[in-house]
Recover the amino acids of this structure.
């Protein structure tokens, strides 16, 4: 089952901002978010990699390792629990969901083959144990 952490990721970030005496308004401005987002960061439920990269670039605080699980490391969200799904299912235990954006450029003739290409990608992913939804 999930393990409770002593501090949530949001609390860790908030404490680091305070400890380093960083300007929350400046961080928010550099990130392109509302100041309220930074002021209430300890309440944020889930931190995606994009947000943590923007935070790192704006403040120098690097919490990006919390967004991507590795081997047996827990994926941390701000509820203070691991996000690794330990349910046994078709794809085994320790299932992690990750969204990926792919930009495809093509001429009109090849664009008609896009469905076939996506089907090939889905089949290849499945052969390697991934599920594309």
């Amino acid at each position: 089952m999930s393990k409770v952490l002593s501090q949530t990721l949001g609390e860790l970030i908030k404490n680091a901002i305070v400890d380093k005496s960083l300007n929350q308004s400046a961080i928010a401005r550099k990130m392109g978010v509302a100041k309220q987002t930074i002021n209430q960061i300890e309440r944020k439920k889930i931190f995606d990699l994009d947000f943590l990269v923007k935070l790192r670039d704006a403040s120098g605080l690097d919490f990006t390792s919390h967004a991507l699980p590795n081997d047996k490391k827990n994926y941390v969200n701000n509820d203070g629990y691991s996000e690794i799904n330990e349910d046994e299912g078709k794809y085994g235990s320790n299932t992690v969901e990750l969204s990926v954006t792919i930009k495809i450029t093509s001429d009109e003739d090849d664009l008609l083959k896009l469905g076939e290409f996506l089907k090939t990608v889905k089949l290849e992913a499945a052969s390697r144990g991934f599920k594309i939804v």
Observations:
- The two ends are 26 Å apart (CA to CA).
- The helical segments are 9-19, 24-31, 35-39, 49-59, 108-111, 114-127.
- The domain at 1-89 is CATH 1.10.260 (434 Repressor (Amino-terminal Domain)).
